[in-house]
Amino acid sequence: MAEPRYADTLPPLPFAALIAGATLTVATHTLWLPFWVDATAAALLFWRAFVSIRGGALPARWLLILLTFAGALGVFFSYRTIMGRDPGVTLLVLLLFLKLLETRAQRDVFVVAFLVYFVALANFFYSQSIPIAGLMLLTVFVTTTALVGFSAPQRPIVDDLKTAGRMLAQAGPVMLLLFFLFPRVQGPLWGMPQDAYSGVTGLSETMSPGSISSLSLSDAIAFRVKFQTEPPPRARLYWRGPVLSDFDGLTWRVGLPQLRRSMSVESAGSPVDYEVTLEPHNHNWMFALEMPARIPPTARLTSEYLVISLTPIRSRIRYEMSSFPQFQAASGGGPEDLANALRLPRGVNPRALALASEWRESQADPGAIVRRAIEFFRGGRFEYTLQPPALGRNSVDEFLFNTRQGFCEHFASSFVFMMRAAGVPARVVTGYQGGDTNPVDGYMVVRQADAHAWAEVWLAGNGWTRVDPTAVAVPIRVELGITATAPGGASLPLLMRTNLNWLKSLRNNWEALTNQWNQWVLGYNPDRQREMLSWLGMQQPSWQTMTVMLFWSVAGVLLLTALWLLRGIRRDDPVQRAWSRFCDKLAREGLGRARAEGPLDYARRVALALPARENAVRAIAALYVDQRYGPRPDARSIARLKHLVREFGL
Amino acid sequence: MKLDRVLQYSQAYNFFQWVFGRHAPEPGVVFLSQRRVYILPTRHGLSFGVAVILMLIGSINYNLSLGYVLTFLLAGLGIVSILHTFRNLAHLYVSAGRVAPVFAGDTAQFELVFENKSDFDRHSLDLACRGARVSCDAPARAHRSVALPVKAEKRGWLQLERVTVDTRFPLGLMRAWSYVQPDTRALVYPRPDSAPLPPVHSDSDTGDAISAGAGTDDFAGLRPYQASDSPRHIAWKASARSELLLTKLFAGRTASELWFDWDQLPAGMHTEARLSRLARWVMLAEERGLPYGLKLPGVEVPLGEGFPHRERCLKELALYRG
Prior knowledge:
The complex is a heterodimer. Chain A is of the alpha+beta class.
């Protein structure tokens, strides 16, 4: 076994800064890491701190190797794999703290610092918000301070902090140039681990009782909208999402998506133009105001009027759209589509089936049946609640005739069931309803809490027609939004409660700032880069052009930084400088000053060699001697000396 | 010659001159101009570059905007650290200070003086010469001297060899270095061996009796005091009367005077062994306060005692060329 080596050779304060950097960089990871990892990291940290403070030996190498294997094994048992994003980050965190326990010399310090940087980068897998950015900047600052401290161990730590701060400030312009001009490539470069996009909230491909009401507790932003034209009134703000047409008695599912080129929307009104900034939700659909008229070039329209992207939306995207708030959607009504929109599960909800067949027998016109159903919902004294009672196998029957308490998914599901039972083609549409305009920046914000489900029926002559049974039963939901509807408001997210006005304005400001952050920092992608470069007057620059531009601009910034850094480097005596220049001029003519030759002797020798310049030579030597060795140099004589030297030519 | 003058502005040329050429020692103050400060990344700097590239690939793959920000901030930090490391070394003035004589086998402490005329402090300047390493700082507008220990192997003059001054401040990612060779040398005396002082013997030709303790006989006069005179020979009373410090002179051989003679050493003795023996005797005689003289082939140091006398004898031994 190697003899124990002691840790006290490292300067204590820089090492403390290094430990602080390691702690800061894992701070947010501890929230999601398995508990045993947090505990292990804390234990290793305390062990290291104990050795630093109380002295003693660091663990032997074989013990560390054993611990590393144990950690890897633990990661494997926690995640059932060692590949992927989360296991990878977990391993990095463990390695970081194990390495701290092995840190004896400066060489190890660098390894720790690099691990800190890697773990800092891993933070951005989980959040790229402004606070996280600030925290990571602090991490880099502290770690840089540690590196500065290790390279000059005698200095007070305050000076190290100053140096690190200055260096980061000088790195800032380089960072900005690289950020904006580095030729951007749209990732991913290779296949991503399966778990890369877990944990995003939003609508899903299925709807069962409770799935949307659980979303309504979330304050998270689904997307933001900037209207180029006057936004439609709130009651028409239906943001179309996945369309669900398969029902098994409890859960609604999306049908097979079919792309159609010949989808058409007719409208008497004028279109609304807007731009959507969509948060990633790991599905293909893109939200559009009903009904989409013009869609982005990269998107497609399905036979259900759903705008979809060809790849899942895994990063925040921006797209422009236009829609008709008043529309006739006559496409997607082929025989197969309509047959799909009439299918029902067998043997459930007998009472609802009986009522529906009663409607069908009394009314021949589908429009009249729809009106009848609307009347039923309007007069049924239904209650809109976030905590509806649980429903059994005959969910529609139980909701319509017994509990009469439900959220929008109950209303939509029951309505569509009734319509299908009565022979009217119908389907469930999920999406968002409403949205609040932030007065600070004018963006409309649509949150997960605005998630909604409504129904669509096929009426010959009018096409697919929207019916919102929730709006019929509880009109206030659509007119004033979710906040006004929920009883008591207590179960709503804190920030959605209307009575806290100061909190609301604070939130508006913060969200406007976040939006700018999203648009300009997080949303800076190859498209934005092209936009910005064309704004700078470069149309379609190649990556070679961009690289050259990047190179020269970085070189320019570095030159300025160098001039700034080197401004105080030369504090030569002006008298001495003038004299050296004079001697250099003479040396070029073979009249160099001998090593031990005094200025006056030298002048005498030069004067003999150059009789024509005798006066100038003697004057320069006299001034030099006077100013250099005399009691007090004066500015006029120095200026004269400089002048004489400058004029001195051979 | 013309070409040489142009080429001296080239950093690469300077570098190869220093590494492969035989550079002459530079007298006076050496100015570390930017032409003779070289800079390259350290091993850690290269690893840092690899780390930054890995982070860039990760950021591209996962479309992490803040990943780009972090990566580019670190890249900027690395680039800026080149400037910082460079300015930590460039435009320093290096000159040679004093160096005390040493015996062969001991370590000579070469004093080097750094002058920092600029407005900012320089940190962690590392000096290396033949395996010796020391570190020092140079605060703004100040002088700092540092002693560079160099092992003295052989007697004679020990010329300071090429010294590498380098620095990794502030991040340790870059190393700036320069070569200097100030014109300074240390005198290395022969290493004394462990022989005892030779017995004081009488010269049979003259018949002079030399007995320890005597030496007041044959007073011959006074002369002005010289630095090498023994304090015991100062004529205090006479000095008190005159303006000068006076030394009593004695005629003939006084007591216990020692002549260390090259020729009286055993015939088979090697030159270096002879010099070591003589150095040893000089040291011992000086320690005991006995007057002594040195006779080498072609060189004779007359009788005397005191520190300057010892230095002179040792210097003759150090520089003896047989």
